[in-house]
Design brief:
Length: 135
Amino acid sequence: MNHLNDDEIAALGALLDERERALKSGVHEHVSRLLEGGQPGLTTPAGDAADQAEVGLTREHENLAVVRDVRELRDIEAARERIAEGEAGICVDCGEEIPFARLEAQPTATRCVRCQSLYERTHAALPEVSPARED
């Protein structure tokens, strides 16, 4: 079922390993900064409202970075499962082969370029529309 040869599967595995190491290191750094108060004011009360807002934004940024990295770690785990099941490089939408060049660029890709483009167009976040104000 898998169109990838053994060398391509090994290369894909190595790319996933490398990315996983980088992500785990990044998560560790973000969490350490949050827990150890690596940013001034993170563990002590900030001065004025502007300082408090800056501290809040810094914490939010660190938290969002952790969430983003954990999501990608889950994608890596799923890619490894697809490799183990012989389904790596098969588009989840159309069932066609995902070219190895795409997998080299995005080892966790689950869609071919055509299906990914369609997915992004149909699932794009629409801008928030606020109700008209009556003055």
